[in-house]
Amino acid sequence: MAAGAMAVLMLAGCGGDPAPQPSEPEPQESESGLAEGEPDMGALTSFTCQADDEGQWTATGVIANREETSETYQVTVLVADGDAGNAKSTLLEQVQPDESATFEIAEIPPNGEDPSCRVTVIRLAH
Q1: 3-class SS at 42?
Q2: Scanning 26, 27, 69, 116, which has its CA 20 to 30 A from the CA of 12?
Q3: pLDDT in the model for residue 104
Q4: Matching CATH number, 8-124, of 3.40.50.300, 3.40.50.2000, 2.60.40.10, 3.40.309.10
Q5: Is 89 in a helix, a strand, or coil?
Q6: Do 77 and 87 touch, CB atoms closer than 8 A?
Q7: What is the pLDDT along the chain (126 residues), one digit of tens a residue?
């Protein structure tokens, strides 16, 4: 279902786990704005998110395009102990069918006392 003014994002927790589990959809705004498209957590084949010794969070992962056409994906990561905070996003443009693309999102600002990572993948509308 296309998201109109608000993107519907599926959030998944992480702790360096390569296979995040989706939870309830939550609306979330990222630094790069709202994406219009379809949630596609199934495209996320690998995901790691962790803080370094200085408290700087970095997320890395792999998106696999299982569609029959080239697709653009927006990956958004929120590091917080709740559903509020400043998320960061990256675009993976024109991922070809049956191909994968890697991403890294660095310096994600943490929010709260005991933050954890949440990742969202949106396959953008053409």
Answers
A1: helix
A2: 69
A3: 98
A4: 2.60.40.10
A5: strand
A6: yes
A7: 333 333 333 344 444 444 444 333 333 334 445 578 999 999 999 999 999 999 999 999 999 999 999 999 999 999 999 888 899 999 999 999 999 999 999 999 999 999 999 999 999 987
Rg from Cα positions in the chain:
14
Across 15-80, the runs of DSSP E, i.e. the strands, are 22-27, 37-39, 44-51, 57-64, 71-80
Residue 93 DSSP label? E
End-to-end C-alpha distance for the chain, whole angstroms:
14
**DSSP letter, residue 109:** P
Distance from C-alpha of 44 to C-alpha of 18, rounded to nearest angstrom: 9
- CA 56, 57, 62, 68 dihedral sign is negative
Tokens of 70: 């080239």
According to DSSP, residue 87 is labeled B
